[in-house]
Amino acid sequence: MGEMMTFKRPDGKECSGYYGEPKAGDKAPGVVVIQEWWGLNDQIKGVANRLADLGYRALVPDLYRGKVTVEVAEADHLMHNLNFADAATQDIRGAVQHLKKTGPKTGVVGFCMGGALTVLAAVHVKELNAAVSWYGFPPEQAADVRTISIPFQAHFAEQDQFFAPDQARSLEARLTSGKVKHESYWYKAQHAFGNEKGPYHNAEAAKLAWQRTTDFFAKHLK
User: Domain total for the chain?
Assistant: First the structure.
């Protein structure tokens, strides 16, 4: 369905990524997909393929430079070694710029660690047109979410054991105080409920969140 490719970061360095192209070809709107802490694995490639089936050019930047794991300890290690600012302003921004070369609008969607990076991208990547974060956000001091100027959607898990629900409520309050055009949804589920290969998958919550995500992108990108 998709294939690996390379694109240029703003600083001129190259980054590779997994790319899924829809039948409409390279003029279709784009979505940058941001991995969970496991790396660029088959599950996140599957998300890109689903978006391609819906008519988007989907690009997943390889933030770990080829490393993939199924071990929690190694995933934690890889995530903590990742320079989040560099990933957001270089890898992710480069992916957005690449998609915008031929298509009109580009959004970003991320999950878990990728959800946190989505928030950073929404703040810092001015070329973006819309952003959707699934159960992830950065520490409050990492980015002023009140400055987000694009439509933003967030999905939170009521029983999230990695990203504290009270901090998610605080994020919602800051979005509101900044008059950010946003919508947020809560699910009776645990963290990573959207990952069909993970231990916390909740099919009902995942289906609803996916529908809301795709409706949001159809509204703001197509």
Answer: 1
pLDDT per residue over 76-89, tens digit each?
999 999 999 999 99
User: What pTM did the predictor assign?
Assistant: 0.98
pLDDT for residue 6: 98
Q: What is the radius of gyration, based on Cα positions, of the chain?
A: 16
Cβ neighbours of residue 99 closer than 8 Å, sequence gap 6 or more: 30, 31, 32, 57, 59, 106
Residue 92's domain comprises 3-221
Q: The domain spanning residue 17 has which CATH number?
A: 3.40.50.1820
Phi, psi of 219, deg, nearest 5: -70, -40
Distance between CA atoms of residues 140 and 132, nearest Å: 18
Specify whether the CB–CB gap between 116 and 36 falls below 8 A: no
